[in-house]
Amino acid sequence: MSLIQVINPNTSLAMTETIGAAARAVAAPGTEIIAVSPSHGVPSIEGHFDEAIAAIGVLEQVRRGREQGVSGHVIACFGDPGLLAARELASGPVIGIAEAAMHTATLVATRFSIVTTLPRTLVIARHLLQQYGFTHHCAALHAIDLPVLALEDGSGVAQEKVRQRCLQAKQQDGSGAIVLGCGGMATLARELTQELGMPVIDGVSAAVKMVESLVALGFGTSKHGDLALPIAKPLSGAFQHLN
Ligand code: 5HY
């Protein structure tokens, strides 16, 4: 049995449910999903400040998951907040949904488009494309210009805007695949793939399968080199519990 901890780094429990449902929809029969989010932090992650706050919550959850003996971790926010720090703390694999979706897109298409939420977060996606080496694979980035939590307001407006942007990307970008740039979009991918007749990739699902594969191959996060456990030191104040 594999136990995969899927972390929604924002504190919106409705989105944690959405993300958990997407993860469970693709989990193998022997995989149990634990969907969690920080008990304190930021309700949605829409910029660099939010990401910095969310990263601490990610580390707290990774530490808790390691104590629970989880097989691996997914960071289910498209900014992959705290990814490398989480890898230092973790013994199992830690996969961010942006890297998972981007890697998957490059395996099924030569170029992909990204559809995310607010225009101001496009720069975060661009930074990740550079960091992961996918800049030349990404044909275009689009934003629906709605806040992250519009995906959870029950109106369906954000979901329809995602659909429209995906159709536009298919018609205009010359891409072979589309990456959904928000954990809250996770449950839209399957239906959009069928409607558009092209891979529309959700990073939550992709990350869960990557963790399963790494665990099956017997690989955790390397503890040789820069992802070794953090150097022990007396953490103080609000960070004491991270010791
Ligand atoms: C996410 N924010 O996946 C990112 C996406 C975004 O709270 N969860 C968030 O739009 O930046």
TrEMBL record:
Pfam families the UniProt entry points to: Asp_Glu_race (PF01177)
GO MF annotation terms: amino-acid racemase activity; hydantoin racemase activity
UniProt EC number: 5.1.99.5
Top EC class, one word: isomerase
Reaction(s) the record says it catalyses: a D-5-monosubstituted hydantoin = a L-5-monosubstituted hydantoin; D-5-isobutylhydantoin = L-5-isobutylhydantoin; D-5-benzylhydantoin = L-5-benzylhydantoin
Top-level taxon: Bacteria
InterPro entries, alphabetized: Asp/Glu/hydantoin_racemase, Hydantoin_racemase-like, Iso_Racemase_Enz_sf
Keyword hit for Isomerase: yes
Record flagged with keyword Isomerase: yes
Keywords attached to this entry: Isomerase
Similarity annotation: Belongs to the HyuE racemase family.
Protein's recorded name: Hydantoin racemase
Organism listed in the record: Candidatus Pantoea deserta
